[in-house]
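RECORD TYPE: inverse folding
INPUT: structure tokens
STRUCTURE:
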């Protein structure tokens, strides 16, 4: 029995009856020989961490566009906080921590530059629309490794696709990530908004903070404990009505005071215009697309999708640089 098989046996002996066992995975789109050291979900986690799309998250907006400060969250630090929160919950519930981590690390790989402003822009101009969760699956299936894809397991792909509020992941590990994503951004977006001077702790209604806590850390701790308590011994990941209701009230408060705040979002109109301008430019200049995307185009993929692939893969900095290179006149040196 090799190391991987030993780990699979330990999962059977220790994990909850509701956990997803590595040995029971539905497999990959393209079958592969098993690793002798790592389980299938550990391999998926490693493939995601070593991917280019994961590294690019470090320069993609979370909430505040290009903030002047080293401590504001980016899409990468958001992803790491989701992973940490999700792993804590999964470990406490004796779920598969490796599967949970892989889903968490991959859930935003298809996100656009400039956060949801970029997503709105592509959704407005693309005839097929644009959703970052769908693009994240496309990224791991077709775009990574210059068009080869990462060939992840079905369970990880399902968790990535269904991490949004309205979705229903098949595994409890996917359900954990779906909730952890909300907890993470409510927690860290409040923290960043206070840092930016958009909010103070006293601005948050007492009807919310009296239930879930008067500091960011206490609120996150409250959410995590509530999920663990409400989900223990159940085949569903959920929150209690009281804490879950307070969390949704907090989310609504954040939409009102931060996510649609004219000060915090003052530059988003420019970001959306930039993304739309690049989209129409590349539609007319497909020769400027990377070779691996041109190969997908030659195989019959729709040009609108290919252009969305290219733009959504850009970081904030690269999108801005390409816009300047294409549309901003250069100084004449003579």
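DESIGNED SEQUENCE:
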């Amino acid at each position: 029995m090799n190391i991987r098989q030993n780990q699979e046996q330990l999962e059977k002996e220790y994990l909850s009856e509701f956990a997803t066992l590595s040995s029971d995975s539905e497999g990959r789109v393209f079958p592969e020989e098993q690793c002798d050291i790592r389980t299938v979900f550990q391999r998926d986690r490693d493939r995601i961490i070593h991917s280019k799309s994961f590294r690019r998250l470090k320069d993609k907006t979370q909430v505040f566009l290009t903030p002047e400060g080293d401590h504001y969250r980016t899409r990468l630090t958001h992803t790491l906080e989701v992973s940490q929160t999700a792993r804590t919950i999964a470990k406490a519930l004796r779920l598969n921590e490796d599967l949970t981590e892989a889903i968490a690390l991959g859930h935003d790989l298809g996100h656009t530059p400039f956060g949801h402003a970029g997503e709105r822009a592509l959704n407005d101009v693309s005839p097929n629309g644009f959703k970052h969760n769908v693009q994240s699956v496309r990224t791991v299936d077709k775009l990574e490794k210059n068009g080869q894809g990462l060939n992840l397991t079905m369970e990880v792909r399902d968790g990535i696709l269904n991490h949004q509020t309205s979705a229903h992941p098949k595994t409890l590990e996917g359900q954990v990530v779906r909730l952890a994503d909300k907890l993470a951004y409510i927690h860290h977006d409040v923290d960043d908004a206070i840092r930016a001077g958009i909010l103070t702790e006293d601005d948050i209604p007492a009807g919310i903070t009296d239930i879930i806590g008067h500091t960011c850390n206490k609120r996150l701790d409250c959410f995590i404990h509530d999920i663990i308590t409400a989900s223990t011994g159940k085949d569903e990941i959920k929150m209690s009505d009281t804490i879950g209701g307070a969390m949704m009230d907090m989310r609504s408060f954040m939409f009102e005071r931060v996510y649609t705040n004219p000060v915090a979002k003052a530059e988003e109109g420019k970001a959306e215009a930039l993304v739309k301008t690049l989209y129409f430019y590349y539609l007319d200049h497909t020769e400027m697309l990377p070779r691996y995307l041109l190969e997908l185009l030659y195989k019959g993929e729709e040009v609108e999708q290919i252009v969305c692939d290219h733009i959504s893969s850009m970081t904030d900095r690269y999108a801005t640089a390409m816009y300047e290179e294409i549309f901003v006149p250069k100084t004449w040196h003579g």
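NOTES: The first helix runs from residue 3 to 14.
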